[in-house]
Amino acid sequence: MVQIRVFDEEHERDLEDAVNDFLKGLSDRDVIDIKYQVGCINDEDDQIYCFSAMVIFRT
Length: 59
Hints:
The chain is of the alpha+beta class. Helices cover about 20% and strands about 55% of the residues. The protein is built from one helix and three strands; from the N terminus they run βαββ. The chain has a three-stranded antiparallel beta sheet with strand order 1-3-2, covered by helices on one side. The chain is elongated. InterPro entries: Spore_Cse60.
């Protein structure tokens, strides 16, 4: 069965840690693909980033 797991973090390092922790529980052959995306919103005072990844895997 093919499934996905979506991760969404405000910091790039937090996303890396979350995805790496999840991948530890999978074998290399079970990982089909990983999609990565960065979103950025600018307002008057701040730039807000959103780092996300979707892991597609077999169970």
